[in-house]
């Protein structure tokens, strides 16, 4: 039953070689996984050249310099190794592979940004240069850095314009409030004028009974009206300075009307001064003039009330609006993204480990078939049963040793966080035994051709197991092979037990699938061994294909 073990123990070199072969998966995993364990934690070592040629500009009377602002932001940013240099030096750095991207800010960046509300507005052209021939993934990271700069500049420009617009809106609100106060004050003045002019009319109508006695009263009343008109004229001029352009025509017309009223009232005052006893006709004319002036004042009051209402409607639109720099920040960047993950990932290597482990174990199985003479002559065994059991026990032993070493390296060397360690080890053990069983069948049946087929099988599984990119990004052939080949199940199952989730290719399905592969392979191996004992020709062909000399 232990013929193969006895054979190994008699050959120390073979024993040492097999033990070395058992470490291949651990060595392969250590080197490969160690080189990519956490690359995103070292992105600050990737150099990005930034060429700032921006010359600045002026916006709303204030100097802006988008390029300088960006440089200051990046100096405090440690996501990449930002280097600020000239265009010529940046081109040399990119060509030599010293940097992974060059981001160039044009000299007209600020000038273009200052004209975004003009009729000839243009985009700001940010140039991002990469060198994918030197390192493709590095160039992708470099391009992402350039796009991050683009987003930062876009946010800065949006914030700049938002703050300017909010400031203008705040000024408009303040001016409208001042205009409203001025119009309200004018309305009060007009009402006082109407009341004074009413007293004037009453006085003029009473002049028939005592012109001389009423002359002083008329003069005082008319003087009050004149003073009020002058005050209202001054208020109108102030209002014109504060009113929006669309109200200039109305206020100018009111100002002309007030001027005419002043002229008319001064004429009335002259008439009062010239009045004497018995000037009844003049008193009647004055009374008629005052009544006309009263009508004009009433129309002016109505117009002022209408204008005041319009200004109030405009101010009502500002109710509830908070116009501050904080609001400008919210408007410029209104979206807050909350990212949640159903699994907790510590680093890139943790996600890549299942694929590397599956590949390294399969490679270890191929190496075992190359080193150990799977097609040993049947003369070394009593019968087919002993031959099958002996080799099967050897396969199991190699699988236990190989996966044990690998698990120890992952757990204690890389400190790989595994949610279900026992299941993880069981998956690796079943996967190794399944791969070794299939390869043993192929080599027992077809010798070196079987080893070649095993390599082809590995290549197909490398491309269809979704170990790196999502399977949806692969071709139709690989998507068809994905749910069929066992590495897809092994990789997915290892991910499940590491991160504690359930995928389409579940862990239980993997256990069943790998167990079936192992069982079927061992049965086929038994049949092959039986045929070798029954038919010498079959034994000779398989040994010839292996070209093994003992």
TrEMBL record:
Q: Which GO terms describe its cellular component?
A: membrane
Known InterPro entries for this protein?
A: ABC2_TM, Phage_infect_YhgE_C, Phage_infect_YhgE_N, T7SS_ABC-Transporter
Q: Where is the signal peptide?
A: none
Give the coiled coil ranges: 290-317
Record-annotated membrane-spanning stretches: 12-37, 352-372, 393-412, 424-445, 452-471, 511-531
Q: How does it sit in the membrane?
A: Multi-pass membrane protein
Subcellular location, in the record's words?
Membrane
Taxonomically, the superkingdom here is: Bacteria
Q: Which UniProt keywords are listed? A: Coiled coil, Membrane, Transmembrane, Transmembrane helix
| Domain named ABC-2 type transporter transmembrane: residues | 24-128, 326-526
- One annotated GO molecular function: ABC-type transporter activity
Would you tell me the protein name for this molecule? ABC-2 type transporter transmembrane domain-containing protein
Q: Which organism is it from?
A: Salinicoccus sediminis
Print the organism lineage. Bacteria, Bacillati, Bacillota, Bacilli, Bacillales
